[in-house]
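Sanity check

After download, print the first record. It should look like this:
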Amino acid sequence: MKTSYSSQIKKQLIVSDIKSKCCAEAELTALLLMHEEDVFQSEDKNFIRRINALALKAKDMNVKRRIFTNIDKKGKKHYGIELNSNKMKEFPEIEEKFCCSNAFLKGCFIYSGYISSPESPARAEISFKNATPAEFCKKQLHQCGISYNTTIRNSKEVIYIKSVASVSDFLAHIGAIGAMLEFENRNIIKKGNSDANRMINCDNANLDKTVAAAAKQTALISEFMKTSTFDTLPEQLKEIAILRVENESLSLKELGMLLTPMLSKSGVAHRLKKIEEIASKKIFF
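Expected structure tokens:
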């Protein structure tokens, strides 16, 4: 079964290094607040190993641990850990350090976070079963300078981030540097493709206008050439008129290069405009 983009990032974060004791306490606090229980169970043994490693690192919390396994009715093996600490029940204030804010956000994301794939519109979100971890999370996002919005979905508060810059910052803060680089790289490619398509569409539109104008001009001159007035024109005007009719697809610059001596683009445009003015008066008036 294909693993979602969010799951891939979580798997990377679960096995990432735990930098310090204070960060271990912050991340473990996030997980406990999100879970609301002391007992964690999962089919992913690395998730349980992560919680155990956090508990070992957070020495001041004096956590007692009991690791276990069990088999469910479908025969799937589950790994589990039970934590017990009076200090954990107090959920101390996260230290006013960026590393701890990052660790707390990482714990929240690992537990119930979502991130859109780089090919989709930018969005990161975390859902909360109760207000306490949500308020902690908002405080840490504010400390990190990350803009966010909130909504309610299925009776749960959801904090979401939707700008490309903010999602990229969030990934960097939780330590998903590889995902951040991939996200920014694909968005740069998308923006480049969008800009290229815009330029192509603009060029095509200009080309269509040029072709339409040339066709209209050629039709007018062709009709004018059938009149006796055309023969009275100066030779230089008759020459450029004939070239225009015989070479409808050429640009003004290319028409000028066919003349002897050669004529600039503006010079060709001036002569053709003069012919159009005379032809319009003769044919339509």
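If your output differs, re-run the checksum step. Summary of this record's structure: The chain has two domains: 5-175, 196-284.
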